[in-house]
């Protein structure tokens, strides 16, 4: 009898037992690195996810810092623009005030010769020199019209024109037998003026009307009176 122990051979028709990965006593095989295979794979996956999250956090932090810096720059630009606008508004107001002052000074300076002529006309009237008075008044009127025309003043066309309530103020009416003369201005009682396209004062006029009754100064007057 042989002392070596041998495994019994399987009987004919019986399958040999399959080899399993279990070690002795059913334990998992140990990897050469000293850890189990599935645990090592799980640890490596977790480490990779941590690296990705760290990179993403760093990227977001850098983006936030860039946005914060850009916002600060925009705020500084806004403050500078606001200061520039305030300075521009103040400068514009000062310039407008200066222009008004200069315009008034220019107008007054232009009117000084008119005052001189008025004084001469008054002196002539005091000396009972009618001819000198008429000449002085004529010079004064001509100079005044020239100065005001240079400032953009024009007269309202009235005499012989169709009555226009936007330019004329009818204070009297006059009956006419000519139908073509109806509603025309037949007399200018006070001249009207326009300054640079804007009406300053309407012309005070008398208007021709066709009818038995006319009005003067708002009162009805019979034509036979």
UniProtKB/TrEMBL annotation:
Q: What is its main location?
A: cytoplasm
Family from the record = Belongs to the GrpE family.
Gene Ontology cellular-component annotations: cytoplasm
| NCBIfam families with a match to the protein in the record | PRK14140.1 (NF010738)
Organism placement in taxonomy: Bacteria, Bacillati, Bacillota, Clostridia, Neomoorellales
Organism of this sequence: Neomoorella thermoacetica (Clostridium thermoaceticum)
Family matches, as PANTHER family:
GRPE PROTEIN, GRPE PROTEIN HOMOLOG, MITOCHONDRIAL
The role this protein plays is: Participates actively in the response to hyperosmotic and heat shock by preventing the aggregation of stress-denatured proteins, in association with DnaK and GrpE. It is the nucleotide exchange factor for DnaK and may function as a thermosensor. Unfolded proteins bind initially to DnaJ; upon interaction with the DnaJ-bound protein, DnaK hydrolyzes its bound ATP, resulting in the formation of a stable complex. GrpE releases ADP from DnaK; ATP binding to DnaK triggers the release of the substrate protein, thus completing the reaction cycle.
Q: Does the keyword Coiled coil apply?
A: yes
Residue stretches in coiled coil: 50-91
Reply yes or no: does the keyword Cytoplasm apply.
Answer: yes
Q: Name one GO molecular function term.
A: unfolded protein binding
Where found in the cell?
Cytoplasm
Q: Quote the protein name from its UniProt record.
A: Protein GrpE
Q: Where is the composition biased (Low complexity)?
A: 12-22
Q: Where is this region: Disordered?
A: 1-45
